[in-house]
Amino acid sequence: WTPPTCCRSSGINAEYGGTMKMLVSGAGDIKITKDGNVLLHEMQIQHPTASLIARVATAQDDITGDGTTSNVLIIGELLKQAKVYISDGLHPRVAAEGFDLAKKKALEVLDAMSIKKNSRDDLINIARTSLRTKVKGAVADLLTECIVDAVLAIKKEGEPLDLHMVEMMSMEHKTEMDTKLIKGLVMDHGARHPDMPKKVTDAFILTCNVSLEYEKSEVNSSFFYKSAEEREKLVKAERAFCDEKVQQIIDLKRQVCGDSDKGFVVINQKGVDPNSLDALAREGIVALRRAKRRNMERIVLACGGTAMNSFDDLKPEHLGHAGLFYEHVLGDDKFTFIEECDNPQSVTILIKGPNKHTITQIKDAARDGLRAVKNAMEDERVVPGAGAFEIAVYQALQQYKNEVRGKARLGVEAFAEAMLIIPKCLAQNSGHDAQDCLVTLLQEYSGVERPVGLDLTSGEAMYPAEAGILDNYCVKKQLLNSCTVISSNLLIVDEVMRAGMSSLKG
Questions:
Q1: What was the pLDDT predicted at 500?
Q2: pTM score of the predicted model
Q3: Which residues are catalytic?
């Protein structure tokens, strides 16, 4: 069995290599990508073995966020190498046993090769290595800085990283090189009153989840009145219930702002009716209604303050603060920017692009980049990239197989050969001869006994750790474990049968 063409040609995409795939849905939607996870998710796979491998690859993405294409390639190559020996009479069980021994040795090599690194520069190198396999070089370099700064901004000592605190907002506007990190929040809706200011500086921000409109009672209720005066009274009493809450906001604004130029912004998760909007607009207060729940959490983290569920004990210390609050109109869409926050613990990556599929591609890449940085921070160690790990495993297994007794050594040899698919693919996708590059790398490695990777521009050997080409430790570890298990399971399957309800009923 050999891996699907899409995975071989897109496999281990390099900055200069790897071709793109255009996915067209039944409705005619277009997606252009070279991200293995996206490909395997979107492709319609009929073959049962292929769909099993695709599931393993997408599970790899769910766990570590990277290494999907490598997964497919290594499983395919393990099966291909094992087939050579099995066709000569080796039992699949023995081959699987050899794979297991080889995996244990490969994990030892991985631990020995890992480098303790966790500075900002190391995180940038990790993110860049991951992103350059997904988008073109210039965009990858721009995204790298955004992603690392975003993760460092939301990091809290002694707490697990929550990547949901990095909002991704997309605007079909300008080019992909205008993508940037906003150290604050961007929301995809604006103020609901034409007289409200469009830009406010040095603003106090009140985050609340309080209804400022007429509420329908939960049980059936009705008003009974005998005259028009009584009806007026009832209407006024009902209106006063909302007006009191609006007045509390206005009083607080006067208390904190006084006669200064400071702004005041109300962001409400529930509704604000026209009368309330009018009263707030007269006071120069900007009000946004029906904000998303996840934004309510993020606003408090970005600007400070407390999200209020009631105005009964409203105090100035419940307010957050932002240096700049403005509205940006793009066609029919309104975007609200909250920037210049003092100590933002929630940030936004604003992705721009000329069309939908460019934005989708950058979004997918940014998600993988965030996971790569998170993995590096949690592992606190990295592995040299550019095929260096696979070359080291190949050489280690070639020596180790002499210690293995019996036929299992053939399984170890097949595993060693299969690992070379990664540097071979790197060479192919960069337009170099795979065999030439492989021979160069193996010669160089046996001469220096230090991690040696492939330079994609020249096709020569280089030292990836010095060049800043680094991979995630947990991605490689997950790869070795999942590829060995799945390929061993597939090897010992000797027949595929259609299952389901039997036709021999009764």
A1: 66
A2: 0.75
A3: 35, 68-69, 368
Give CA separation, 333 vs 44, 187, 350, in Å.
35, 11, 15
Is the separation of the CB atoms in 212 and 245 below 8 Å? yes
Strand partners, 288: 267
Cβ pair 81, 414 in contact under 8 A: yes
- Tokens 């087939």, residue located: 83
Output the 3-class SS for 226-239: CCHHHHHHHHHHHH
Contacts of 106 (CB under 8 A, 6+ apart): 393, 396, 397, 415, 419, 480
Q: Of the candidates 59, 34, 109, 145, which has an alpha carbon nearest to the alpha carbon of residue 373?
A: 145
- The per-residue pLDDT for range 192-241, each reduced to its tens digit, is 777 778 888 888 888 888 877 776 666 777 777 788 887 888 777 777 77
The confidence score (pLDDT) of residue 217 equals 66
- Per-residue pLDDT band at 377 (split at 50, 70, 90): confident
Helix (H, G, I), strand (E, B) or coil at 214: coil
> What beta strand segments (E) does 153-247 contain?
166-172, 180-182, 185-187, 199-208
Contact 456, 17 (CB under 8 A): yes
Q: What is each CA distance from 434 to 93, 373, 385, 444, 447, in whole angstroms?
A: 31, 31, 17, 15, 20
**Residue 299 to residue 438: CA distance in whole angstroms:** 52
